[in-house]
Amino acid sequence: xxxxxxxxxxxxxxxxxxxxxxxxxxxxxxxxxFPFNKFDITALEYKPFTRFTIAKSLDDLxxxxxxxxxxxxxxxxxxxxxxxxxxxxxxxxxxDFLVKLSxxxxxxxxxxxHDSMAGKYYARFHVKHDDKSDSYLRKAYTNMDLHxxxxxxxxxxxxxxxxxxxxxxxxxxxxAMLHLDDWEHCDELFNDPxxxxxxxxxxxxxxxxxxxxxxxxxxxxDEGKPQISYIDQFPExxxxxxxxxxxxxxxxxxxxxxKVITKLPVGSSVVANNYFWLHGRRPFKENxxxxxxxxxxxxxxFSN
Length: 304
Hints:
Blueprint: E1 8-12, E2 19-24, H1 26-37, H2 41-46, H3 48-60, H4 65-75, E3 81-86, H5 95-106, E4 110-112, E5 123-128, E6 144-147, E7 159-168, E8 175-179, H6 186-190, E9 199-201, E10 213-215, E11 218-220, E12 226-228, E13 235-236, H7 240-254, E14 260-262, E15 269-273, E16 277-281, E17 291-301
Parallel strand pairs: 2-3
Antiparallel strand pairs: 1-2, 3-15, 4-17, 5-17, 6-16, 7-15, 7-17, 8-14, 8-16, 9-10, 9-13, 11-12
Helix pairs in contact: 3-5
């Protein structure tokens, strides 16, 4: 996907031609400092229109070409994923700046869902050595298996953004991703009628969702190609057939030779289409001083 946008270095990811890398130049970052400083994080949380204001500030610096390019990538089945980050972490970039940059990027492609876990349009959380949580999200030394987001909520989850704000004493914890069209067992599992049955999807208490939903693991897009909505921890199989299907699905995803394993630098945001990209995380090497701070935004595409 060839594209030239002044101030943005664009190239295919070294691990996958489906993933587009976008590096933001120092010049662009310095021009963002003033408009970003106009709003603190509380203003972004309480006044949704301010999020669009900073998104426009980012897009204006590309002559409005960045938003068009990002939407083209994220909706294209052949790609569907980009990694956007500062080319260099200049001295005036702090965690709040990265939250604002992630907010701006997300508001160029759609409307974020309310994140019930955090009570905001985004969730910001740490992965540390000690953990008493009730999901794999914060369990540093356990593999987070490949999954999609939004399996247990009523809202549409078209896309997902994950940003790495900070990390210390980290070894391991690489991101894992898999595109459905690269998965060796996609046709086999997609064509299994059990995958088209309704499954019950619940969630642990930390998610702050007081209902359950029903939907299949697999559906089809407008062209009949597979789409998936799946996470290993939350389905509640109704019978032996559904339980066996989920085990086969989990095993074949984790055993895929076509997973993209990549280590992302601090400041990176991965944005992926949630219908045909699955994501996960490899375990960290144990370290009592381990700390990683992440930000998550997920939502729906603009309707127009």
